[in-house]
Amino acid sequence: MGNIYLGVNMEFVRHDDKNFEWGVAKAAELGYQFIEPMVHWGRELLSEAGYFHSVSMLDDPLRLRRATEAAGVKLSGLSAHTPITRPEIGVEYLKQAIRFAAECGAPVVNTDEGAKRDWTSVEEDHMLMKYSLIEAARVAEPRGILIGIEPHQQYSKSPDGLDRICGLCNSPAIGINFDTGNSHLAGHDPCAWLERVVGRLVHLHAKDISIQQSDAERGKVTGTPVGCACGDGVIDWERVAAICKKAPRNIVFSVECGTVEQAARSIEYLRKTVGG
After folding, report:
1. DSSP state, residue 264
2. Which of 113, 125, 179, 203 has the least CB density, counted as fewest CB within 10 Å?
């Protein structure tokens, strides 16, 4: 039986124009036990200037460990989304993210298939994803890192599609980072889908969807960057928690919302509703 812990994806500070360390301290101030940083390749202006929360994988991984230890929080995983349908990008990106995660202390690396190229077939895309996942798993397994495949794009937008992707690589390193909001917007019952995959669950994006967004976009999109405050939308959090307690490992609910104010209301609601 899994325990539930409350964390937050660092996207909650995306509009505050502050650096990673500021966001970590803010998450701790709000009472979160875990954070999920976003990592990127190379260098980009906003992060280097201290105006954005993303961390370059060219930085010292101990930067993340020092920041979390100073704030008294832990890492639930890394947001390392890269198109695994494009091995020229996805393979080396994921391998670097896995090595980075192992050194900074993040147990999970989350990703998805990425947007489809217009000249590949479905079968070709799955062969490309198989190649990417096998290469990544060979780096993840000896380091004890899990790879969380997220329902987010054209192939993972359905239970069968996500199952097919996860079945491409027979490795204990491959698991599922379930996203409650993306699954709802794709037109499915998030709780029924979660029941189906709970045995392979390694991480959860706690994303709520407002009634307005649901009415406008459900069945028309495969996901969304962030949701509303947990408790303000359509997701049945008590049922989500009950299912996650059946998981074979502890699960972090990594809240995905767009503002500090939403993150504050989310943890207040989730503490009352699901504990953690």
Report:
1. H
2. 125
pTM: 0.96
228 contacts: CB under 8 Å, gap ≥ 6: 208, 209, 210, 213, 257, 262
DSSP letters spanning 130-177: HHHHHHHHHHHGGGT-EEEE-S-STTTTSHHHHHHHHTTS--TTEEEE
- Quick one: pLDDT band at residue 1, thresholds 50, 70, 90? low
Query: How many angstroms separate the Cα of 201 from the Cα of each of 111, 159, 195, 275?
Result: 14, 13, 10, 19
Q: Can you say how many angstroms the Cα of residue 96 is from the centroid of all Cα atoms in its chain?
A: 17
pLDDT at 171: 98
Boundaries of domain holding 249: 4-273
Report the CATH number that the domain containing residue 104 is assigned in CATH.
3.20.20.150
Total count of domains within the chain: 1
- 207 DSSP 8-state letter: -
Question: And the tokens for 41?
Answer: 């390749």
Q: Residue 200 corresponds to which tokens in the numbers above?
A: 């392979």
The pLDDT of 22-35, averaged and rounded, is 98
Q: What percent of the chain has pLDDT over 70?
A: 99
Q: At what angle do helices 159-166 and 122-140 cross, to 10 degrees?
A: 50
